[in-house]
UniProtKB/TrEMBL annotation, chains A, B:
Protein name per UniProt: Probable acyltransferase
Subunit annotation: Homodimer.
Cleavable signal peptide: 1-17
Family note: Belongs to the AB hydrolase superfamily. MetX family.
EC number: 2.3.1.-
Length: 390, 390
């Protein structure tokens, strides 16, 4: 959401942006087979890199992104770009993820929310199905977080990177981090899942469905078949509004808007045309973000997250976490309404139970889940030294 | 929701139901003027009573209800009634609210959600506007919690009760309790707001709007004009689903459903026709409850709650709470996602700041907000002795 993005930008503070101008790059995987056994003939995805891959090819750090995010993690596309990438405060010369030392690879996910964002390259229901020449719609194969990781493995092979020095991501990016560590313990050195737990529990599954409900109710959604008509922008905007609210906190809403009306003379007690400022601003942010997003992609992201169990060990929630053998740093906040603190701590306890080293860093802040994006610079020293551990 | 109601009934345990069979009664107020200055020619509302009004008429306790509730607080309508009223564990002979001693009056609110429930008597947008002979729809005057209290004041006058011995209610019933104490400090002896705070903060205002959004997106809602067509049941069901989820807890969802699929062989990773059990059951509960509910009434309840500031002191959040001079017992739980613990404690601190006695009782439980309905018997002794204080 614009609101989230603005907040991130403001809270990120005055640190210099990652210096070289950033360019989106793309890679293609052919005949990509999903966990469900379906084939996507052409999987085109975007990525960005910051820093330089060394000769030993052993200084690469992978950053998968969060639910409503994309691969723009640092820097600016042009000198007059309004805001840098979402973790610019952490990624750059001399920063926690020091681009003088590390080569950072940040990748767009399949079914990325920003299907209509010119800075996103993704493949999903809004893409053309080569078999029909029409957009896939809901015929696009259902994706999993594991499938996202497989696309990143494809890029890793294309870039000839034998092993990630680290995989680090926030929220859905944290799920991908867990998945990498559980699935490919020999292809990474360490993992930093931020504001994320080791599986989607029933609470998260249900809330993700609440996020999706407005899209399905919008008559323009039409079972996902809207690519030659008006898209379900109203439903998508409401879906994005819920994400915005749940990813933040009551403390933020109170401090930012209080009980103010959207317009000073328009009492919500007098007319249905009037509303509260907090509602009005969340609606505006949702509507703005909906314009560059795709409703079906939102539904695919919801289902990918709902299915998540690290390492996909069918029938066993813990096996994937026990398979993690590289050092883990979990960063989270107890005020998180999306991935509650106890779920993160339980995840850590399971990973640690067979001797895997686990560090837990607690963030302070007033932005709930979003603190993991906006206020992560707090953990700068811990991240820096964790990356430098032998 | 059925799900909530079942849970309440199960958790309420084996205590004997309030004994005499209960009958819904009704009262009418004519030319009721709302806070917004509009007139409702005929305000018909239901109520129930438990116990007997004494000769001194000084043993009456008022119980306003929660958002999705009604005046059925105790007892059964018939011998084969499946479940008693929602606080039956607390109301009855020898119970916390001892009907051998107290006369309990429980009142249906205006714009009650259960407009199509045969056991609810209410007046709202689904009622006939005498001026047109048609349902009011969204032309019904916007209501406030203060207006709800005024209807109860009307009943109080009709029953010739000079003073309530206590006013006690949960959630929206707690808001009405605060409102009574702030508005009519001379007409009650004490107040017990349960799982409620002294004003709707920006967080609550925004979440209430999230609850309402699915209704507005349902094309059958049609701007509130659906009384001669298909009602927006799908949107209303989704709205009720969100209430169900937010009123409970992740702990409950995990313990009850975990990551189970709705049907054992129907993997949500394989088809959009499949879903998780937690989603399926919440959908079913929402759909069942929607059948006896009215979508416009839901929207009016949302707006009434959003507007709430105890005592309605325009421009001053605290004055109404400072106007409370009767002893207060606040009962709440920190795990509440609707009225967070810190908002309740802050409310208590403000009331107490000018010397008004405030007791705070913390509930234990795993059902979040719902613990204030389902697990209130924990506070039995405290409630009993608070009611008996001179």
């Amino acid at each position: 959401m614009r609101l989230i993005l603005c907040t991130v930008a403001m809270l990120a503070g005055p640190a210099m942006a990652y210096e070289p101008l950033v360019q989106k790059q793309e890679f293609t995987l052919t005949d990509f087979v999903t966990r469900g056994g379906e084939t996507i003939p052409e999987m085109r995805l975007g990525y960005e890199t910051y820093g330089t891959l060394n000769e030993a090819r052993d200084n690469a750090i992978l950053i998968p992104h969060f639910f409503s995010g994309n691969s723009h993690a640092a820097g600016r596309y042009s000198a007059d770009d309004l805001a840098p990438g979402y973790w610019d405060a952490l990624i750059g010369s001399g920063k926690a993820i020091d681009t003088d030392k590390w080569f950072v690879v940040s990748v767009d996910s399949p079914v990325n929310l920003g299907a209509n964002d010119p800075n996103v390259i993704t493949t999903g229901p809004a893409s053309i199905n080569p078999a029909t020449g029409e957009p896939w719609g809901m015929d696009f194969p259902i994706m999993t977080i594991g499938d996202f990781v497989e696309t990143q493995k494809g890029l890793m092979d294309q870039l000839q990177i034998p092993k990630w020095h680290a995989v680090m991501g926030a929220s859905m990016g944290g799920l991908q981090s867990f998945e990498w560590a559980a699935r490919y313990p020999d292809r990474l050195e360490r993992v930093i899942p931020v504001i994320a737990s080791g599986w989607a529990d029933a609470g998260l599954i249900a809330w993700l469905d609440v996020w999706a409900a407005p899209i399905r109710l919008d008559p323009n959604w039409n079972g996902g078949d809207y690519y030659d008509a008006e898209p379900p922008e109203a439903g998508l905007a409401q879906a994005l509004k819920i994400v915005s609210l749940q990813a933040n906190s009551a403390e933020w809403a109170n401090a930012t808007f209080g009980r103010s009306w959207a317009k000073p003379d328009a009492d919500p007690g007098q007319s249905w045309d009037n509303d509260y400022m907090v509602v009005d601003r969340l609606n505006m942010a949702g509507a703005t973000r909906a314009r560059t997003s795709d409703a079906n992609h939102f539904l695919y992201l919801v289902r990918a997250n709902q299915q998540f169990v690290a390492g996909h060990p069918d029938g066993n929630l813990f096996q994937g976490l026990l398979d993690i053998d590289v050092p883990v740093m979990l960063i989270h906040t107890d005020e998180d309404l999306v991935f509650p603190g106890n779920a993160v701590r339980e995840t850590g306890a399971i990973i640690k139970s067979d001797g895997t080293p686990v560090k837990i860093v607690e963030l302070e802040g007033t932005n709930g889940h979003l603190d993991g994006l906006a206020n992560l610079a707090q953990a700068e020293k811990q991240i820096k030294s964790f990356l430098e551990e032998e």
